[in-house]
């Protein structure tokens, strides 16, 4: 399904594709790192997922540290007839998670889906990586994912189950000439996903990871502005192009929906074939 704006095109697309059926009807989703979702601008994975989730019937809570942008995105979603709320959330701060869960359940009554998407990136070799860089990457990607999962599970128990989707990376599976701490942190999120999936599968709480390849997002824009690096990335991608936020969001939507009700502990790689080589 394509991300579409605004009301007429959204409703027409839904009706043409599946009649009146919506894949996330009645579900409540909290998505971190979701501020970058302004229509007409390059979206992040979280922002694009928020639009797809809303189009498919979910009530969405957008969480981020960029409050101005997050409020704008939530406002635009509401202007198009969707249920959307923004909350401030630094994923490395446990109290922020407690506040975000309280806001989600207080506003919409429950939590069915958590998308742990917030992240940052640093390109540095082992010798270039400082202790601060290492700690920052591990805190955002590994600790943030842990805290989110920890505080989502009790709410999902109350709801009778749920889906936790951890946005990792192909760099959580394979290495590269740089990005050492990012690799380690994304690898940690990959294996954390499997541990949590096994521990809570019996309670109908599914936990899966998504592994995007080289995709055009606000986070990658500066890095991809280097023509030589851009060509190197495209050259490593058999399908011959960068991914989009929508490419990744479609996979996230699948894992959030009941279509994936027997999928847990899995790795969904969306990379144009990069890691198949």
Q: Predict the CATH topology.
A: Rossmann fold
Strand content: 15-25%
What is the fourth-level CATH superfamily? NAD(P)-binding Rossmann-like Domain
> What summary fits the major beta sheet?
7 strands, parallel
The total count of helices amounts to 9
Tally of domains: 1
Taking Cα atoms only, what radius of gyration do you get, to the nearest Å? Answer: 18 Å
**Helical amount:** 40-55%
Strand order of the largest sheet: 3-2-1-4-5-6-9
* Secondary-structure element string: HEHEHEHEHEHEEHHEHE
Gross morphology: globular
- Helix/strand/pairing category: alpha/beta
> What's the overall average pLDDT, rounded?
93
State the main characteristics.
single chain, 277 residues, alpha/beta, Rossmann fold, 7-stranded parallel beta sheet, two-stranded parallel sheet
Q: Would you write up a description of this structure?
A:
This protein has 277 residues and is an alpha/beta fold. The protein has a single domain, classed as Rossmann fold (3-Layer(aba) Sandwich), CATH 3.40.50.720. It has helices at 7-18, 45-55, 67-79, 94-108, 131-159, 180-200, 221-224, 227-235, 245-256, and strands at residues 28-32, 59-64, 84-88, 113-116, 162-167, 205-212, 215-216, 243-244, 267-270. The strands form two sheets. Strands 3-2-1-4-5-6-9 form a seven-stranded parallel sheet, with helices on both faces. Helix 5 (131-159) packs parallel to helix 6 (180-200). Mean pLDDT is 93; it is low at 8-18.
């Amino acid at each position: 399904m394509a991300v579409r704006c605004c009301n007429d095109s959204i409703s027409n697309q839904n009706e043409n594709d599946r009649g009146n059926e919506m894949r996330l009807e009645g579900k409540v989703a909290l998505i971190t790192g979701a501020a970058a979702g302004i229509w007409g601008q390059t979206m992040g994975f979280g922002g694009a997922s928020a639009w797809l989730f809303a189009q498919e019937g979910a009530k969405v809570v957008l969480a981020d540290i960029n409050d101005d942008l997050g409020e704008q995105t939530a406002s635009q979603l509401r202007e198009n007839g969707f249920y959307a709320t923004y909350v401030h959330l630094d994923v490395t701060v446990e109290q922020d998670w407690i506040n975000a869960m309280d806001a989600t359940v207080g506003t919409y009554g429950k939590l069915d889906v958590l998308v742990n998407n917030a992240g940052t990136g640093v390109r540095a070799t082992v010798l270039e990586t400082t202790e601060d860089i290492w700690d920052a990457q591990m805190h955002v990607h590994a600790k943030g994912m842990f805290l989110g999962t920890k505080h989502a599970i009790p709410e999902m128990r109350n709801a009778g189950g749920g889906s936790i989707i951890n946005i990792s990376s192909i760099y959580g599976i394979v290495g590269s000439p740089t990005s050492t701490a990012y690799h380690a942190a994304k690898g940690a999120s990959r294996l954390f996903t499997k541990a949590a999936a096994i521990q809570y599968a019996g309670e109908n709480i599914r936990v899966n990871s998504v592994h995007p390849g080289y995709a055009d997002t606000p986070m990658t824009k500066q890095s991809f502005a280097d023509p030589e690096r851009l060509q190197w990335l495209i050259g490593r991608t058999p399908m011959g192009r960068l991914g989009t936020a929508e490419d990744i969001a479609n996979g996230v939507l699948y894992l959030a929906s009941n279509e994936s009700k027997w999928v847990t502990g899995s790795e969904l790689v969306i990379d144009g074939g990069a890691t198949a080589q």
